[in-house]
């Protein structure tokens, strides 16, 4: 998992004013809430510096959040402004927690989980089609998935699996070849475009879709899949009925749990009556993918490129793995198991550092919670484990659970 990126964590419409909400990301728990003064969103570590209570269980007062345990009041920048037990004493320098930059864009709340200055942050991709409500009709949804987000991302951009995993939905078992494809790539993304032979349309799509003839008579359908580092996907399909675009974020709650949030756009069947069907089609695909991806081993994406075998159609996945290695080399990876959140009991709290830690050097000694460790350190531990210098980390199998649609 990686720090220093913008992560979409919630739909804007699902954070009402006045109520704090807990969100989980990269193994860390965060509280988000809207300021009373201007309705903008604040995102902070959900860990009170006093006794570790979850601020998300507290309340919003003016622009501040109040801890539910002893009532300490935190400013939006993470500094404590009031300690009710000692109103006449000064506030200790260390009475502060990390507060992260936030943007509301493309119907999502995005949190910057890292400490880079603004100019050095990787951008949020251009997803402005989501705002184009003239052209597109949108449905959205959430899907909690008990698999690693990188395995899910690779699955989402993988063209070769569709005839086998989604045969009859949008994959075509009669035509599993992946034809020549075009590639567009940058430092942060990779888009692959192909023309595929579609299967016969079913359900309400079959009413107007003219592709009922033999396979060879059906028009080819332009399809493209795009990933953006570290966890975003766009699937575009130009069906004979019109265009479809499915934007999705694969939110790494921790290494083994992913919350998928999608916005699916379409230029056809734009009435409200077709929304249910449009959502149902996305969930059907997610359930089909889940059945395969949950059983993939190892659970996490290998670091060694030669650990799995690649063929031409895996081009975009190989590029993803290379870019990911570059991020690890830059020191951007975070070892989620050292962050306090879900999972086993721990005695130490670590958090992802926020920008103010670098911006205000005078505060360098004012941070009570240490920064999360990076993967390089974890790698060294694995080496030591293999040499037998330290006991092996517990890898007991846990039972995986079925994913579930999260009620809208
Ligand atoms: S734990 Fe938050 S005020 Fe005491
Ligand atoms: Fe799939």
From TrEMBL:
<feature type="domain" description="Rieske">
    <location>
        <begin position="6"/>
        <end position="111"/>
    </location>
</feature>
<dbReference type="Pfam" id="PF19112">
    <property type="entry name" value="VanA_C"/>
</dbReference>
<dbReference type="InterPro" id="IPR044043">
    <property type="entry name" value="VanA_C_cat"/>
</dbReference>
<dbReference type="InterPro" id="IPR017941">
    <property type="entry name" value="Rieske_2Fe-2S"/>
</dbReference>
<dbReference type="InterPro" id="IPR036922">
    <property type="entry name" value="Rieske_2Fe-2S_sf"/>
</dbReference>
<dbReference type="GO" id="GO:0046872">
    <property type="term" value="F:metal ion binding"/>
</dbReference>
<dbReference type="GO" id="GO:0051537">
    <property type="term" value="F:2 iron, 2 sulfur cluster binding"/>
</dbReference>
<dbReference type="GO" id="GO:0004497">
    <property type="term" value="F:monooxygenase activity"/>
</dbReference>
<keyword id="KW-0411">Iron-sulfur</keyword>
<keyword id="KW-0479">Metal-binding</keyword>
<dbReference type="InterPro" id="IPR050584">
    <property type="entry name" value="Cholesterol_7-desaturase"/>
</dbReference>
<dbReference type="Pfam" id="PF00355">
    <property type="entry name" value="Rieske"/>
</dbReference>
<keyword id="KW-0560">Oxidoreductase</keyword>
<keyword id="KW-0001">2Fe-2S</keyword>
<dbReference type="GO" id="GO:0051213">
    <property type="term" value="F:dioxygenase activity"/>
</dbReference>
<keyword id="KW-0408">Iron</keyword>
<dbReference type="GO" id="GO:0016705">
    <property type="term" value="F:oxidoreductase activity, acting on paired donors, with incorporation or reduction of molecular oxygen"/>
</dbReference>
<feature type="region of interest" description="Disordered">
    <location>
        <begin position="380"/>
        <end position="408"/>
    </location>
</feature>
<keyword id="KW-0223">Dioxygenase</keyword>
<protein>
    <submittedName>
        <fullName>Aromatic ring-hydroxylating dioxygenase subunit alpha</fullName>
    </submittedName>
</protein>
């Amino acid at each position: 998992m990686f720090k220093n990126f913008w992560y979409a964590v919630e739909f804007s419409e699902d954070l009402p004013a006045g109520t704090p909400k807990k969100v989980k990301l990269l193994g860390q728990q965060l509280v988000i809430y809207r300021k009373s003064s201007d309705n903008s969103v604040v995102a902070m570590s959900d860990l009170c510096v006093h006794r570790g209570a979850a601020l998300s269980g507290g309340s919003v007062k003016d622009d501040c959040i109040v801890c539910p345990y002893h009532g300490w009041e935190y400013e939006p920048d993470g500094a404590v402004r009031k300690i009710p037990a000692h109103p006449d004493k000064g506030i200790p320098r260390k009475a502060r927690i990390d507060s992260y930059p936030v943007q509301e864009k493309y119907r999502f709340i995005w949190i910057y989980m890292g400490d880079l200055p603004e100019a050095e942050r990787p951008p949020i991709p251009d997803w402005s089609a989501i705002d184009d409500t003239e052209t597109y009709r949108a449905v959205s949804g959430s899907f909690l998935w008990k698999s690693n987000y990188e395995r899910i991302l690779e699955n989402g951009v993988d063209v070769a699996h569709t005839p086998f995993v989604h045969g009859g939905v949008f994959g075509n078992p009669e035509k599993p070849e992946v034809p020549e494809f075009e590639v567009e790539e940058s430092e942060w993304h990779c888009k692959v475009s192909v023309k595929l032979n579609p299967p016969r349309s079913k359900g309400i799509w079959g009413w107007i879709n003219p592709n009922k003839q033999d396979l060879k008579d059906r028009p080819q359908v332009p399809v493209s899949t795009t990933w953006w580092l570290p966890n975003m996907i766009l699937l575009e399909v130009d069906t004979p009925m019109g265009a479809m675009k499915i934007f999705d974020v694969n939110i790494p709650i921790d290494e083994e749990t992913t919350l998928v949030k999608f916005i699916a756009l379409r230029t056809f069947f734009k009435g409200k009556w077709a929304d249910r069907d449009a959502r149902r089609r996305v969930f059907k695909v997610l359930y089909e993918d889940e059945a395969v991806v949950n059983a993939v081993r190892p659970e996490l994406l290998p670091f060694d490129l030669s650990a799995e075998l690649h063929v031409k159609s895996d081009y975009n996945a190989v590029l993803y793995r290379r870019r990911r290695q570059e991020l690890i080399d830059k020191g951007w990876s975070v070892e989620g198991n050292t962050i306090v959140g879900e999972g086993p009991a721990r005695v130490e709290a670590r958090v992802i550092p926020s920008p103010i830690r670098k911006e205000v050097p005078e505060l360098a000694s004012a941070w009570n919670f240490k920064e999360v460790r990076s993967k390089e350190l974890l790698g060294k531990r694995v080496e030591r484990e293999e040499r037998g210098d330290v006991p092996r980390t517990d890898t007991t199998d846990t039972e995986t659970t079925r994913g579930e649609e999260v009620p809208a």
